[in-house]
Amino acid sequence: MFKKKKNSITFNFYLVKRALDFKTQGTQCYKDKKYREAIGKYHRALLEMKGLCRMLGDSDVSSRSPSSALKTMSHSALTDEERGAVENAELECYNSLAACLLQMELVNYERVKEYCLKVLCKEGENFKALYRSGVAYYHLGDFNKALHYLKESHKQQPSDTNVIRYIQLTEMKIRRSTPREKEAS
């Protein structure tokens, strides 16, 4: 009996390591400015994490995040260290996916927003996710939400020039749209 449990722990460690390796490869691709390849690696890491959850008995993992699935599973399936590594890796993957998408020639701002909001659901104070959400909402034309996220990121890093620039652009868009709304009514 002990031997079987030891083998499953070793196999779980292998699955966690595989997911983390794909995330690390994605990070290297990002540093090398190979954004499409990085996106593939981050997606593969997330798929590995979902596969791990399926192996541990969660058949419904496709409808929720791996870290959410892990919280409902038996604590004996993974060590606390492995569980923490998966949760951190998941957030890093989503944050990094958003960063990659923002580097693409044709940016999918809806997807950037989606990935950032996944991070913010778990880490509401994540500076990069707040800033990137603000950028995404700005380009999607939702200037009030953009300003909210940008101001939240500004609280954390008040001297960040990119944040300041986007706040100024967003406030300018809001001021320009307000008179038009009054004229229309």
TrEMBL record:
TPR repeat start-end pairs: 127-160
Keyword hit for Chloroplast: no
GO molecular function: protein folding chaperone
Any one of the GO BP annotations: negative regulation of apoptotic process
Annotated InterPro entries: FKBP4/5/8-like, TPR-like_helical_dom_sf, TPR_rpt
Gene3D superfamilies in alphabetical order: Tetratricopeptide repeat domain
GO cellular component: cytosol; endomembrane system; membrane; mitochondrial envelope
Keyword terms: Phosphoprotein, Repeat, TPR repeat
Family: Belongs to the TTC9 family.
Record-given protein name: Tetratricopeptide repeat protein 9A
Species name: Paramormyrops kingsleyae
